Amino acid sequence: MKALAIDTSNLVMGISVIIDDKIVGELTTNMKKNHSVRLMPAIESLLQEVDVKPSELDKIIVAKGPGSYTGVRIGVSVAKTMAWALNIPITGVSSLEVVAQNGKYFDGLVCPLFDGRRGQIYTGLYGNVDGQFQLVQEERIILLTDWIEMLKEDSKKVLFLGNDLNLHKEKIEELMGDRAVFGQIADHSPRAAELAALGIRGEEEDPHAFTPSYHQLAEAEAKWIANQKK
Question: According to the model, what pLDDT value does residue 33 have?
């Protein structure tokens, strides 16, 4: 099976190509540039580099959120369009789960996070259960302080990962002390290779029916709905 993986759910833009169990190409950038302008040229370039034609793809894998509303929308829109045009299925993978993979060998719990504004974070909790790295606390958007109180109920150390960690690190240290562990510089960015590995055998969906996972409405949409109810 040949698949293309796409992640633009946050500042990082990542794409990769996987053939069966082998990652044959990966491209990652982490800078403030427009994903909508750069994504398609990057996909075209990577496919050419690894000698895979779009028509040879069997599946499109995409980071489905949560994350930046605009970023998630760009990646999902491109993934759905390609899958529809090629008449192939699409598989979505949690953007938080992709980041969490950077800590899958940590002896404790792994907490990927994205900033959710106003003291909130998008997060979930991962860990090894019976030899399998998996979700152990469901993903959500929550106040950081409330989340930390939940984490303190367990005695295990927690590895925090994510490029937005610097916005919350001081508060986490204050509330959790030495139970909080922070990833190294290369641990915080999601890898498109991990996205591809997660998605290659993941559940396949019809591109027409596929929807992203924002975990909350965009602020403008939420305000519009609130105004309609008045």
Answer: 85
